[in-house]
Amino acid sequence: MKAEQDILSLIPQRPPFVIIDKLIDTNEKSGCSTFKISEQNIFVKNGVLTEPGLIENIAQTAAARIGYISLSENKAVPVGYIGAVQNLEIFDLPKINEEIRTEITVDNEIFDVTIITGKVTCKEKLIASCNMKIYINQNKNPQA
User: Fold this and answer.
1) Residue 16, preceding bond cis, omega within 30 degrees?
2) How far is Cα 63 from Cα 10, in angstroms, rounded to an integer?
3) Does the domain formed by 7-137 have CATH 3.30.70.920?
4) What is the rounded distance in angstroms from the CA atom of residue 114 to the CA atom of residue 78?
5) Which residues lie below 8 Å from residue 133, measured CB to CB, with a gap of 6+?
6) Which end of the chain has a smaller Cβ tally under 10 Å, C or N?
7) Separation of alpha carbons 91 and 100, rounded Å
């Protein structure tokens, strides 16, 4: 299912903390986003997107996926929190004006915890990957 729409309607984050431009594809078990690195981004230092920016980009890709699913079911977009990052590997840092593509796959969902694998590519080269546990707060509405 194609999922291009206003990213701010899918995620609880707001500028300047938004680190995803588009959710370009999503389904029950995966999601894919793009993000063009901007000099103004708070995670950019010395002309590159830093490691915390890559981690947050993976988390926001997962958030956009669940936000899209929630909106399609006429539910509020939930707030999620990174519970753990494991097996983090960063091979390169993308530069200003480069575009990254992030793919997440849901490995497991247990109660309010979603376990994902995230992979970030730039110019079709893998630059980062990790496993992430995300706690979803189903009771909190970020628009309230």
Assistant:
1) yes
2) 7
3) no
4) 13
5) 82, 83, 84, 86, 113, 114, 115
6) C
7) 13
Evaluate whether 47 touches 96 at the Cβ level (below 8 Å). yes
What is the three-class DSSP state of 12? coil
Amino acid at 72: S
| Strand bridging mode 48-49 / 79-90 | unpaired
> What backbone torsions phi and psi does residue 38 show, to the nearest 5 degrees?
-110, 145
All structural domains of the chain with their residue ranges: 7-137
Which whole-number Å values give the CA distances from 54 to 70, 102, 141, in the listed order? 24, 9, 26
Query: Do 78 and 66 touch, CB atoms closer than 8 A?
Result: yes
Residues 6 or more apart in contact with residue 108 via CB below 8 angstroms: 114, 115
pLDDT digits (tens, 9 = 90+) for 39-69: 999 999 999 999 999 999 999 999 999 999 9
C-alpha radius of gyration, the chain, whole number: 14
pLDDT of residue 72: 93
Rounded to 5, what percent of the chain is helix, strand, coil?
A: 15, 45, 40
For residue 144, pLDDT beyond 50: no
